[in-house]
Amino acid sequence: MTRREKFFAFGTSIFSIFFVICLAPAIYFVATPITEKEILNYTLRIGIIITHIATATETILTKGKQLEFWELQRKLRNLYRSNQDDFDEAYRAMVDNFKRKIWLIVIMYTSIEAILLGIMLIISHGEPTRSTKIFLYGWILIFYPTKAGRTRHLSHIMAIEMLKKHVEFFNSTLRDIKVKLRSLSKEKSVEELNLIKFRHIYIWELCRNINSSFKWSQFVNICVNCFQFICMSFYLYIHIVTKNLTELFSEFMLY
Fold it and tell me: Are 46 and 220 in contact (CB under 8 A)?
């Protein structure tokens, strides 16, 4: 990374931390939670903010590990000199497949939120209630931290997909080399075995870097998601029993 890129990365991360910290009192003054449900919804939004702070903080603290991850990717690629074309083709296929997954998830999230928002406004006959207004203002304020938490999940999945592809290609080349070793000279066999050793070491390092870079932020992220799921299940039961569909859709928009 160049000095400008490092400055931009650090600057945006630090700015995002201070920005979301300021969101907590802003959401409180906008929502002014009074009832138990409003307090619970405010708590959910605070959890999303904490996830964002944990993500940005861990990103800054594990900068070296993240850069090392991409450096290990480059070193692994160089170790497949005899299978360079096959490796590049498999890597491109993996990237294209992941891009399709990202777009599918983004479209799904956006569509669900748009549909629920439309249904909620239709049911309320275009005259939002106090709870609907509180939700809309809160949803706008919490939009950025919510996407940060989801992006963290996608980043983690991307890293695991890359590791998975390296393991698959390593196993594939290992099977091929097992057959070739019988016809290779002693020096060539030693060279191939050394390449296998270094590939295995780099893959192990990749795994360790992933675990180090997505440790506490994902722990917080998953805990908040579990809390959201519990609340969503509770709201689903309560609103189906009371047949209050308007507030049911507004609650679902929090997730």
Answer: no
